[in-house]
Design goal:
single chain; about 200 residues; alpha+beta; 2 domains; four-stranded mixed β-sheet; 4 strands; about 60% helix; proton-transporting ATP synthase activity, rotational mechanism; ATP synthase subunit mitochondrial; hydrogen ion transport; ATPase_OSCP/dsu; membrane
Amino acid sequence: MALRMLGRRSMSAAAAPVTKFGTPGRYANAIYAAAAQKNALAAVTDDLSLLKETLKASATLHHFVTNPSIPRETKASGIVKLLTSAKADVVTKNAMATLAEGGRMHDVFKVIDNYMEIITAAKGEVNAVITSAAPLPEEEKAAIRAQLVSFLDKGQTKVESVFKVDASLVSGITVEIGDKFLDASVATQLKKLHSLLKTSI
């Protein structure tokens, strides 16, 4: 509740460049607004990046914050103690305490990821995930990066590209850039052909 109230007070002065939806998205919007109002975006971004890395690295800590049998108040005090020892910004501590008290610590990774997407948008950047059936040579990657620039929306200035491999695509690629998804994989073409054949029999 406290974070949502803070988010509403801050939003008019520090509206996020993109609005995230769903419960994790609403928390992310509020964290961004609170951090922007206090000129603490860089600090909070660093805090949340470190927290995510720490949770991934420590199975014990991950279990502590996501185990539903552990009281919310215990989680809140524990996460605040951890963040205090790491000299985290007060916005980060308040945000995670509110997340714990609201019983939403199981969404912590989604909240952080949503927040990072807002930060990326604020920088005029957009993330692109290119998935191919086999590793692509560097010259093909460069050509794809050059083509992705044409998909940028107004206010976007840079594409951050991540290349992945998924053998189930058979051949071709899929591209996810911002809210756009392009599928040029053989697997999808085969599925469409299979569906067409079934309906024509």
